[in-house]
Amino acid sequence: MLSTNNVGTLLIVLAMITIKMYRDHGYRNNHIANMFKIELSALNKSEAAFLRIIDYSLLVSDEVFSHLFEEIFSFKYRKFLL
Question: One GO MF term, please (predicted)?
């Protein structure tokens, strides 16, 4: 479940998967974990969990993208409304 505790890790995982998908040369997970000061095991588990959740379907429709975009970025405003 998406929460304020894991939205940052999710954004890192999304960027990491996108780089792996669209670049000939990506970064190893341990490099990204070190760069963002995340435990490598947590990053690996988050990546694997996200890929299972989306059933490894990396290409999504505009509708799904818009829904996820709104859900992720609404966290920015939720803390001001509470």
Answer: protein kinase binding
The single-letter code of the amino acid at 82 is L
Total domain count for the chain? 1
Classify 15 as helix, strand or coil. helix
Q: For tokens 């609404």, what's the residue?
A: 74
pTM for the whole structure: 0.69
Average pLDDT, consecutive stretches of 10 residues, N- to C-terminus, the chain (82 residues) = 76 92 88 94 94 88 87 68 51
Structural domain containing residue 50: 7-81
What pLDDT, on a 0 to 100 scale, did the predictor assign at position 71?
81
